Amino acid sequence: MAFLSLVIFTSLSANAFSFPTKVTPSRCLSALTRLGISSATGVSLVGAIALGLTGGSELAGHLHETPHVGLSVYLDYENILTYLDPSDRAEFTKKKTNTLSIATILVRLLSIKEGDSAEPFPYLKPIMASSYFDDSEVRTNMCRHKALIMRGILNHLNIKAELLTGTVDAESGRGEHVWLYIPSINQMADPMNNMVLSPDEFEKRFHPEVYKGVIHWAKPLGIIGR
Fold first, then answer.
1. In terms of DSSP bridges, do strands 17-18 and 214-216 run parallel, antiparallel, or are they unpaired?
2. pLDDT by residue (tens digit) across 62-86?
């Protein structure tokens, strides 16, 4: 469970931007402050740069037919299928989709990956979603990356999945987390913890507090704060 980036998941009010919890200044904003640039100007400046990166990421994904799912992660769906074992792959190629089976497979496979590098700006480098299914070590092993990849795959299969952000109970204490809700089967899916649970079961286990009115603009804006 990682601390969410400053502008990846922001809470939009009708009158102003507000944050649902106390936000620790990011590396970029701290550096700008030391240069004598005000926080407001810094947010505007870094935001403008990040918006440019967002547009570039969307264009790159379109040109290479690998949709950008967020945080510089690109969905190379056909490559993902090649890393699945035959029984799992069969579920993804059936004419009639079994949503629960697919969700269960995805949380199991995505939860296996571990490892996270200390790159200061990991989102400036493209990451293929298939790298979370092969034998390589992933550069960014956080709940938001896995949730974005799982949502991208489900959406590719015409299965609606909603990204949820909030705080949950964990062994290390209460922390911020990102997971999915799949309306068609009324299940919560947590690819970080290999769980597909009913909303009631998820509530009993994690006692989640979901941020209301959050815009899930999970694009390369993660460069602002990780």
1. unpaired
2. 455 568 888 788 999 999 999 999 9
Strand partners, 180: 163, 189
Name the β-bridge partners of 194.
Answer: none
pLDDT of residue 33: 59
pTM: 0.69
* Contact by Cβ (8 Å): 137, 86: no
Q: If you write DSSP's letter for every residue of 53-100 in order, what string do you get?
A: HHHHHHHHHHHTT--EEETTEE--HHHHHHTS-HHHHHHHH-SS--HH
Domain 23-223: CATH class, spelled out: alpha beta
Residue 79 CB contacts under 8 Å (≥ 6 apart), including other chains: 128, 130
pLDDT over threshold 50, residue 219: no
